[in-house]
């Protein structure tokens, strides 16, 4: 019962509801933004006939050379005087360069496995570039998109470096709550938050992986 009391204490925290909302917004917005930007960069670098387009992938990979603390500090200095400061969105902007390199490489590898003729056939039938990407490219690389989105989301929800630099009283997330409990010597409450964090990750991973596996199986069956 003492263990359950720790969960009760965490849930009764007046900030807990807002923290869950901030966490949900952070992981969904960060993962979606990184996925969209990475897909655009990957498609341009793989499919564009312009030589300079290949530089996009190199530029997207450049943040990998910088520690997370440097990226967090740069984000803070960039947006400290903007409306984004004190909101979840400033943390979202920090995660974009942090996780863009992995997602770009993942999607580039997936796009290289799709022959250009499939897109050219759609364009011959009158489809626009945007329609071709939406109706031809995206369905074929959907398992990679789901895995990339899931990878970013699970890293975002447990990350502590960026919230430590960019959090305020209005944009606290669950990883920061865990750190606060631990810093104040409330290890039992911190453990309860950690278990809740694991539950959130499981709730994300299980259905997303099931859907990605089903989509991959349907794609392979369709090709067969």
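Q: What amino acid sequence fits the structure above?
A:
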């Amino acid at each position: 019962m003492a263990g359950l009391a720790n969960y009760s204490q965490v849930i009764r925290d007046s900030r807990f509801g807002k923290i869950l909302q901030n966490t949900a917004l952070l992981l969904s917005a960060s993962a979606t933004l990184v996925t969209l930007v990475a897909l655009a960069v990957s498609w341009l670098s793989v499919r564009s006939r312009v030589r300079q387009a290949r530089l996009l992938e190199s530029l997207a990979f450049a943040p990998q050379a910088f520690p997370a603390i440097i990226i967090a500090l740069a984000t803070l200095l960039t947006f400290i005087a903007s409306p984004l400061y004190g909101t979840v969105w400033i943390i979202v902007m920090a995660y974009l360069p942090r996780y863009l390199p992995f997602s770009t490489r993942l999607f580039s590898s997936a796009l290289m496995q799709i022959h250009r003729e499939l897109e050219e056939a759609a364009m011959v039938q009158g489809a626009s570039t945007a329609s071709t990407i939406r109706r031809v490219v995206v369905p074929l690389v959907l398992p990679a998109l789901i895995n990339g989105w899931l990878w970013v989301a699970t890293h975002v929800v447990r990350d502590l470096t960026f919230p430590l630099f960019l959090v305020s009283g209005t944009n606290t997330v669950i990883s920061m709550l865990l750190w606060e409990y631990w810093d104040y010597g409330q290890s039992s409450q911190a453990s309860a938050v950690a278990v809740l964090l694991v539950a959130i990750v499981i709730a994300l991973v299980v259905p997303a992986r099931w859907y990605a596996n089903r989509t991959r199986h349907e794609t392979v069956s369709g090709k067969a």
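Q: And what stands out in the fold?
A: The CA atoms of residues 216 and 222 lie 10 Å apart.
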